[in-house]
Amino acid sequence: MKRMAVNDCYCIARLRDRARARLPSGVFDFYDGGAEDEITLHDNCNAFSRVRLLPRVLRNVSRVDMSTQLFGAAMALPMAIAPTGAVGFGWRGGDIALAQAAAKHGIPYTLSTSATASIEEIADKAPGRLWFQAYILQDKQRLQSLIDRAKAADYEALVITVDLPVGGKRERDLLNGLSFPMKLGYRNIGQFVRKPGGRSICCCTSRR
Ligand SMILES: Cc1cc2nc3c(=O)[nH]c(=O)nc-3n(C[C@H](O)[C@H](O)[C@H](O)COP(=O)(O)O)c2cc1C
Each residue of 48-65: pLDDT tens digit? Predict the structure, then answer.
């Protein structure tokens, strides 16, 4: 079979095709899917497709500078990486690679509570502007200990996720037998066996 190159992906649709071909279907569905008939997911995609760039012509573009300030510190671009859980299920070391790319390009990276790398590992391997995402956990002691660890590792901001008092009814995940935090069970283990990759099956913010 001809090996597909990932670096010839010039648009999200192509990247998505590549991911669908390479990943276990349950993992692909987790990244790609949404909740409740995916109506909001489609609405969001449609909303983005209506966004247009406003061309400003006849300007001096000999030096383009998109840098800005946020929370009193400089960033090279007006964007940050949002928290994404389970990245390591798609690519071993994916969280670290993302955090390193963010540091290299001078933008903040947000580590998810559901990440597949630990708070300390990211701080050690990708020193840059780090933010830590936390859920409002029922276990307040665990929440405090995560926040303390992030603080001790020099994360500069806390990102609180407030829209998850209960998990969404993600129908693809239910069909695939996936729960979150993602666990391997009898319904999904076959996909990992059929498409073994470099997935790191480990949890998140636990110390390693
Ligand atoms: C695969 C995936 C995993 C995500 N994991 C988390 C997470 O662990 N914590 C969190 O607060 N948000 C998580 N999000 C939400 C994103 O951080 C972001 O808020 C959301 O995708 C909306 O931004 P977008 O329109 O750029 O996708 C996740 C989103 C996706 C698609």
Answer: 999 999 999 999 999 999
Q: State the DSSP string of 145-200.
A: HHHHHHHHTT--EEEEE-S-SS----HHHHHHT--SS----TTTHHHHHHS--S--
For 114-129, the pLDDT digits (tens) are: 999 999 999 999 999 9
Q: How many domains does the chain have?
A: 1
Residue 60 falls within a domain, yes or no?
A: no
Residue to substitute in 84, 143, 176, 178 for testing ligand 1 pocket (most ligand atoms within 8 angstroms of CB): 84
Atom of ligand 1 nearest to the CA of 85: 8
Expressed in angstroms and rounded, the spacing between residue 31 Cα and the centre of ligand 1 is 9
Q: What residues make up the domain containing 19?
A: 12-35+67-194
- pTM summary value: 0.87
